[in-house]
Design a protein that fits this description.
Blueprint lengths: L11 H12 L5 H28 L5 H32 L20 H28 L7 H27 L12
Helix pairs in contact: 2-3, 3-4, 4-5
Length: about 190
């Protein structure tokens, strides 16, 4: 509910421009469909990884098993991130999603406001940070096989950027004073 009265446009150019701008949101729909296709490609890659993991497990060392599991977690976290972007992006920028008669529909998918979107962004950065941590851990576990100080430095540096970004976003959300996404003075 808004306190402002509804404005009726009398200028046809202004109405036409606003209609074009409003309908331009549909240009984002193909991006989200492309991300769904990328999720299918990721599923294919996950299938290949799990198959290779199973085939090599009997003869693998413990460190190889751990690296295999970390690779599977890495792909899974990336899939989760794609879903967050697809659903919250579509819901927030294109059109509402009607869950219909789907009792197992996750509640967050149709109820993400600006504050919720900030939380999803923070969760996404945490997921990316976890993925980068997995990459750093993989590099450390393979340090005997091929040590590349420059690559390891880059992996650690990138991971630290994600960690610091996550901390800064969490602190700004906590101390920013805007916890509901709305105008606090009006309440």
């Amino acid at each position: 509910m808004t306190d402002q009265p509804t404005r009726h446009r009398t200028n046809p150019v202004e109405r036409a421009l606003e209609t074009v701008l409003f309908n331009s949101r549909w240009l984002m729909a193909p991006f989200y469909l492309g991300l769904v296709v990328s999720l299918a490609v990721l599923l294919y890659k996950f299938g290949l990884l799990i198959w290779e993991f199973i085939l090599h497990a009997p003869a693998a060392k413990e460190s190889d098993i751990i690296l295999g599991v970390l690779s599977l977690i890495d792909v899974s976290l990336t899939g989760n991130l794609i879903l967050i972007v697809v659903f919250s992006g579509y819901e927030n920028f294109v059109s509402r999603i009607d869950p219909g008669n789907h009792p197992d529909w996750p509640e967050w998918m149709t109820k993400v406001d600006f504050a919720g979107l900030k939380q999803k962004l923070l969760a996404s950065i945490v997921a990316i940070s976890a993925i980068s941590a997995i990459q750093v851990l993989k590099a450390f576990m393979n340090i005997d096989a091929a040590f590349d100080a420059q690559k390891l430095g880059w992996l650690i540096g990138i991971h630290l950027v994600f960690v610091v970004s996550t901390l800064l976003l969490a602190l700004s959300d906590r101390f920013g004073g805007d916890h509901g996404g709305g105008d606090n003075a009006a309440h």
